[in-house]
Design brief:
The protein is α/β, with parallel strands linked by helices. It has helices at about 15-25, 80-85, 95-105, 125-135, 145-150, 150-170, 190-200, 205-210, 215-225, 250-255, 275-280, 290-305, 310-335, and strands at about 5-10, 30-40, 60-70, 90-95, 110-115, 140-145, 175-180, 260, 265-270, 275. The protein is built from 13 helices and 10 strands. The strands form 2 sheets. Strands 1-2-3-4-5-6-7 form a 7-stranded parallel β-sheet, with helices on both faces. A 3-stranded antiparallel β-sheet has the order 8-9-10. It is elongated and about 120 Å long.
Length: about 325
Amino acid sequence: MFYDLNIPYTTNHADLQRTLAFVAELGYNTIALSINLSGKLPTDLTSPIPSPLPFSIPPTLHILTRCTLTLTDPSQNHRLASLTTIYDLVAIRPTSEKTIQQTCLSLPTIDIISLDCSIRYPFYFRQSTLKAAIEKGIRIEICYAQGILGTGEARRNLISNATQLVRATRGGRGIIVSSEAHRALACRGPWDVVNLGIGWGLGKERAVEALSREARGVVVGAEMRRRSYRGVVDVIYGGEKPVVEKVEGKGKNQGAKGKEKVGNGGKRKAVDGLYAADVVDDVEKPPSKRELKRRAKARRAAAGGKADGPSNALQDSTEMKEDGDVAMAGFKDEG
């Protein structure tokens, strides 16, 4: 499955419908419609993306909602927790080195750090800063549409920033690639994007994961954080146990048909509504050696209470053997 997690939402539904249809034809399975916000958030937050969309969409396309918040002031409180309850994905677009550090180190409720790679940053991306964000489950996003339809300077900045991000993340760990295409002309197929990532320095496997595995991890992680307990324990409905009806035997013919597995896969037949194990339990078991010794002692005491000695010990063993033979004979006859 291929993901494109940044397609800007527009109120021109005709263009949006064409873009979604073209994206589905290119081979994408999941996309995210994005809304860009900046500055202080309003008190009443609502999503302008209608659900469901007022036009038909391809049946193979799964649509998510996303909010991209441009962060310009590190000291401003943007109430990110309220955004996670409205949108499926929350992304931050930092504009300075301080906001990048704040986003990577101290913002726990976001999913994506989306960098505008079409502009030139006056600083280098630090490996330790990006590594801290990736270890928390945040992914770094590179958008390619500005480099395709933009000016030559935007194309140069895209290549430079993407190459620097690949180096800072040690070969592209935690990087996802999205389009941010405002129209269908800026969209590219998954394998074209893979070739584009290889040109930035990504390995082929990393480039494929940037559109599939890493992007899927963002979606699953955001869903887990919304509906689970602290993003760790998720309670799901596992169904109900099937009701097993017990068939009571009413006669020999009906009881003889019932079977039950016992032991190591063996089977036993029912006899007159009772299982063979129940029948065996009713038969008197042979007495133990202790019981035989106790009986012999009781008979000896009743005979005259003779003192214990070698002859009495021999007599006890003889009596115990006779009692055991009698008990085993009776057990065989009853069986």
